[in-house]
Amino acid sequence: MDKNTATHYNDFGYIHSENFFSDKELQQIEVIINKFHENWLKENEKDYQSGLINSHSLTSSKFISPEERLEIFKFIAQDKISKIIQAIIPEKAIFLNTQLFFDPFNKNQTNYWHRDIQYTGMSIDEQKEKIKTQNVLHFRIPLQPELGIELIPTTHKTWDVKEEEETRLSLNGRKPSDSLHRGKTISLHRGDLLVFSANMIHRGLYGNDRFTFDIIFCDDTPEFKKFIDFKNHPTQEELKSLNSELF
Prior knowledge:
Jelly Rolls; six-stranded antiparallel sheet; alpha+beta; globular; 247 residues
């Protein structure tokens, strides 16, 4: 990863790399992900029909075998992913979890602007301070072409302008699905990688049968470790096959 790419992340809060993964690389995990998703949909049909648009914790799921779990860990631990993380968070980062994002069951369901930090229970004042120092990274890997994501560049370190805060928090008649003037849409194709800060204002764009695998990393600090379910992390035996400091 070159210095200019890391600088772009630091300045704007995201990196979009086209054709980052070969089709062969994606095929290695795609069968596992599809298997997980099919079983997850069967078991969570009511929740999906009620509005869920993502699942999580593939690496602790009963739907995949130990061998398949190790394949996912190997994908996560690959060198070109590690190099990006080290450039963005040189102090040290740690794997947090995996997620899958898909379209809602109800095609009329609206998407919503948010910062992930708004769901932590922190006050607004605490959130304003924490985004300046804390890092949570999404590595978004689309498995097919999709409308992508809309985000507000620079808001990984800066707070909302009035229109954005009112929209995100449903204030003064605005709704989280309303358009924002500073929104930047990034369309994604199979093979692309989008790295973005979970702290920034963003929203997923529904439609086109999106199906996206996210790997999430965070600062390796006690404050974040309390949110980690270590069942999602490799065992000591599995670590011998990975040669990675991300777990």
